[in-house]
Write a structure and sequence with these properties.
The protein has a domain at 34-71 and 151-303: 3-Layer(aba) Sandwich (Rossmann fold), CATH 3.40.50. The protein contains eight helices and eight strands, in the order αβαβαβαβαβαβββαα. Helices cover 37% and strands 17% of the residues. The chain is of the alpha/beta class. It has helices spanning 15-29, 48-61, 78-82, 141-159, 176-186, 200-214, 262-270, 281-303; strands at 33-40, 66-70, 117-119, 165-171, 190-196, 220-232, 237-239, 254-260. The longest helix has 23 residues, at 281-303. Strands 1, 2, 3, 4, 5, 6, 7 and 8 form an eight-stranded mixed sheet that branches.
């Protein structure tokens, strides 16, 4: 009997050719994207998706071409927050002979009112339903879920019309291990921005993501501390939100500190874009973080 290592190539399955073909389609689809930035944490509940959306809005307000890929397939939130929950994906007609995979054009992205392209499973699946990754082996769906999720991510990257962009932001699912898996899948051309909150528990979990990512080839741009205080509109002051001692640093640059604002959460629920947010210290903090992100990415380009 042959063992696994006795099998030459892919054993005749053709899977290696399929993977290479998909990789080529992904590279073709992202050829016009200047920067790939994955926004992760390792810790859930830190406001990563909200921050991703409004960073995108602040970057767009500065004239940059931005798109967001909501990679949290099981808990997609970008569709609602970006106001594209009811905007369906409309595949273009087939164009045989175009040279594209499957003989069809790329699928256009839904866009927010300020022109940000957004892919989110929330535009395809109602909030009352869950994304189901079926398994041919009953009781073994957990074994194949990650494989199917990354296969889906590959198809999204290969099939949608990303066009010419300054930044494509990936809103990653929580989990330190998941963050590393996405780093491996997206490759070294994707940089990472991490999100934490001012608590020892959160920074401890995010520090694990920093340590794990530091072993790979992806560039760590820095982190943003979200919910760094509570913005009181009545007194126009930032008040403490977490009653905890100052935690240790993350040993990567801090690109900004963004206070919590209930009004910002209400805007997200209603799909109101960054451009329509009222002027406040919170909006200023998001804009400053976006400015620092641009600076870091520009410095990265110069060093290459």
């Amino acid at each position: 009997m042959k063992g696994y290592h006795d099998i030459a190539g892919d054993g005749g399955s053709g899977i290696l050719a399929q993977v290479a073909g998909q990789r080529a389609r992904i590279a073709d689809g992202l050829a016009g994207v200047r920067h790939l930035v994955a926004i992760g944490s390792g810790k859930g509940g830190v406001g990563k998706s909200t921050l991703t959306l409004h960073l995108g809005g602040a970057l767009r307000a500065r004239g940059l071409r931005v798109a967001i890929l909501d990679a949290d397939f099981n808990g997609p939130s970008q569709a609602r927050m970006a106001g594209v929950q009811e905007v369906p994906f409309v595949p273009p007609p087939s164009t045989k002979g175009s040279g594209m995979a499957g003989g069809s054009r790329k699928v256009p992205l839904p866009r927010t009112g300020n022109g940000i392209g957004v892919f989110s499973m929330g535009s395809l699946i109602p909030e009352s339903q869950a994304l189901d990754f079926e398994s041919t082996a009953p009781g073994e769906s957990h074994t194949w879920r990650a494989t199917r999720e990354f296969a889906l991510l590959g198809e999204i990257l290969a099939s949608f019309e990303w066009g010419t962009l300054d930044l494509l932001l990936f809103d990653l699912p929580p989990g330190a291990e998941r963050t590393v898996q996405y780093a491996e899948f997206l490759g070294p051309q994707t940089s990472f921005l991490l999100v934490t909150i001012p608590s020892e528990v959160s920074r401890g979990v995010v520090a694990r993501s920093v340590a794990a990512l530091s072993k790979g080839s992806n560039r760590l741009l820095g982190y943003v501390e979200n919910m760094s205080g509570y913005y009181c509109r009545d007194c126009n002051a930032i008040k403490p939100l977490f009653d905890s001692p100052e935690p240790a640093g993350l040993e990567i640059p801090c690109l900004g500190s963004v206070p919590f604002d209930p009004e910002l959460a209400r805007h997200c629920d209603r799909g109101i874009p960054f451009a329509e947010l009222p002027e406040s210290p919170v909006r200023q903090a998001i804009d400053q973080a976006a400015q620092r992100l641009i600076h870091v990415l520009t410095a990265t380009e110069r060093s290459e």
